[in-house]
């Protein structure tokens, strides 16, 4: 099957970005950070960036959900 315009372009280098909900993603290193996201200072191949995310993002629930669950557990 040939490529379509819907397929994503693979970039040579990526950076790891994080949002205010402490959710991680990768983004092409030569592009400005998307709105609401900031670079964490890690860049490299797609595999290197994804490995970094696997190491640091152990709880994938958004920060707001984790806080609500903690408050309920503490009886607030």
TrEMBL record:
SUPFAM superfamilies membership: MbtH-like
Protein's name according to its UniProt entry: MbtH protein
GO biological process, one term: siderophore biosynthetic process
Highest taxon above the source species: Bacteria
SMART domains: MbtH (SM00923)
InterPro entries xrefs: MbtH-like_dom, MbtH-like_sf, MLP_fam
Sequence ranges assigned to domain MbtH-like in this UniProt record: 5-55
GO cellular component: cytosol
